[in-house]
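Hi F.,

I've been meaning to write this up properly since the lab meeting, where we talked about keeping a consistent format for the predictions we share between groups. The idea is simple: the sequence comes first, exactly as it goes in, then the structure tokens exactly as they come out, then a line or two of notes. No screenshots and no reformatting. I'm using this chain as the first example so we have something concrete to point to.
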Amino acid sequence: ASGKGRRTIYTYFSNKDEVYLAVIENELDHLIERLQVKTERISQILRESQNNWEQAFYVTLCRAFGFGVNADAMQQVANSLPLNIIMHHRDSIEQIEALLLGQAGFLNNIENPDTQTTIWLREYQFLSHKFSLKPTDGVYFKFLRMRPSGFPTMRLAQFAMLLHRHDHLFSKVLNNLNIKSLREIFNIEASSYWQTHYIPSSETEHHGCRLSRSSIDLLIINTVVPFLFLYAQTIHNPQLQDTVLDLLRQLRAEQNHKTQKFTSAQFPCPDAYTSQALIQLHDNYCTRKDCLRCQIAHQYLKTNKD
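Output, unedited:
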């Protein structure tokens, strides 16, 4: 149970060793549950992409670059701009930036465009006419209460560089199933313009524009692993499934208000494999007060009959 005036069941166990064992024995089940929830959305994207895995990965990854708050808006941009169009012009970072920023509406109504923004406007006008593109209408990007490094304009610039650097991105990820290689793939820095800008034509002091290690790890945990897990399921490859799940063993546990409720009760949470399982417990058992189906609660009741 939870809420004001109530005790949360995982904060006062008298037989923690038995309870820990229950969590460890069932963490794979909870992890699979969480992955299934995540792959539902990916499956829908895959269907909309006509089972084109590269296109689906592109859309899924663009959504992920919204990092939750701007996920829906980023996905709409990707849906409006097929990957094959970007791949026609992937040798030019300026053209990729123009396409993404233009489709997102960030090149509209700029009163005093600087030199770079003028180039983007010219490129977007040409490319949108060439490919009959229509910018997304009614897409709302959030900027309030965000650090400038997380602005959607900056995320689009980083995503543009990722597409510029890597052709056939899904295939490259699939062929580099180790944390070191995956981190290297996503270790990207937006073009030099973004070192003095967070939004077009608005200059700032010099700042970094590289995707942080923590952001890279979140992309691997929340996007790469679920996507590859679905792919392994689809092609019926259990060995690939095990390899994908093992990636989570190599990453640090997520630290947020959900996992903190467990770690504050001294639950062991050594890696992302366990933290993902605990998040699933929190979201689908604790918050729903579904204690009768929870293995932690079951073990607590079993070892505290008196």
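Notes:
The longest strand covers residues 197-199.
The CA atoms of residues 124 and 130 lie 9 Å apart.

If this format works for you, I'll send the rest the same way.

G.
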